[in-house]
UniProtKB/TrEMBL annotation:
<feature type="binding site">
    <location>
        <position position="216"/>
    </location>
    <ligand>
        <name>Mg(2+) 1</name>
    </ligand>
</feature>
<feature type="binding site">
    <location>
        <position position="92"/>
    </location>
    <ligand>
        <name>Mg(2+) 1</name>
    </ligand>
</feature>
<protein>
    <submittedName>
        <fullName>Inositol monophosphatase</fullName>
    </submittedName>
</protein>
<comment type="similarity">
    <text>Belongs to the inositol monophosphatase superfamily.</text>
</comment>
<feature type="binding site">
    <location>
        <position position="72"/>
    </location>
    <ligand>
        <name>Mg(2+) 1</name>
    </ligand>
</feature>
<dbReference type="InterPro" id="IPR022337">
    <property type="entry name" value="Inositol_monophosphatase_SuhB"/>
</dbReference>
<dbReference type="Pfam" id="PF00459">
    <property type="entry name" value="Inositol_P"/>
</dbReference>
<dbReference type="GO" id="GO:0046872">
    <property type="term" value="F:metal ion binding"/>
</dbReference>
<keyword id="KW-0460">Magnesium</keyword>
<dbReference type="GO" id="GO:0008934">
    <property type="term" value="F:inositol monophosphate 1-phosphatase activity"/>
</dbReference>
<dbReference type="GO" id="GO:0007165">
    <property type="term" value="P:signal transduction"/>
</dbReference>
<dbReference type="InterPro" id="IPR000760">
    <property type="entry name" value="Inositol_monophosphatase-like"/>
</dbReference>
<dbReference type="GO" id="GO:0006020">
    <property type="term" value="P:inositol metabolic process"/>
</dbReference>
<feature type="binding site">
    <location>
        <position position="93"/>
    </location>
    <ligand>
        <name>Mg(2+) 2</name>
    </ligand>
</feature>
<feature type="binding site">
    <location>
        <position position="90"/>
    </location>
    <ligand>
        <name>Mg(2+) 2</name>
    </ligand>
</feature>
<keyword id="KW-0479">Metal-binding</keyword>
Amino acid sequence: MNAIDVTERLDFACALARRAGQRALGYAADIGALDVRSKGVQDMATEADDAVERLVRDAVEATYPDDGFLGEESCELFRPDASRGTWVVDPIDGTQPFICCLSTWCVSLSWFAEGRVRLGVIYDPNRDELFSAALDQGATLNGQAMRASSATGLDQGLVGIGHSNRVTTDDTLDPMRRLLDANGMFHRCGSGALTLAHVAAGRLIGYYEPHMNAWDAIAGDLLVREAGGRTNEPVRDVNDLLTGAPMLAAAPAVWPALQSIIKGSA
């Protein structure tokens, strides 16, 4: 993999994430006028999701026409092609908070090539925070290096928890119960991508979701690892991009305890 290619793509992704976030903010200013549709239980989409994804797709196709593209709102069109890199995009992660006029949503972009996530960018337009990382090059927040938390125990911070209708309630509640029994505390904001960015920035000590789609997970997964944290690295093959997987991330010293909590062996 050419280092220059990755650097150019990272710069492109950072600028594009900002453009996409500002477009989404424009829609957020008039939420009541948006067309909203349901994709399932607690799984919503709006015309803003569609418009922002089109903006990103058009920019990628214009700049990197030979790259693949996987977007949440058009995932049925994706055809895995291991011979080229693939952009993986969630135009608005946290659509339910977005619809409810809450600020816990973001734009998530990543580039997957040769079996690895090569770059990841998460932009929170409400706080104008840009989290970015490239493989083996570290992670930054608004251009400044960031590090995962130095916490050494589950009682020293908050652990983000995610849930979706793709799993049972017990899949989420059993680990939460064990976390609380271990003197930990959970946090949920409605955006898994943004929560992973906060783990990378050291604001949270960990994150767990029983099943997470690639477009929600892999940018944040890279951010955490490049910030010195640990993850289960859920996507290791281009075919994994469509299946989703459990997502576990943590500050390095907290990883063993959180891993035991999730496995039920604590």
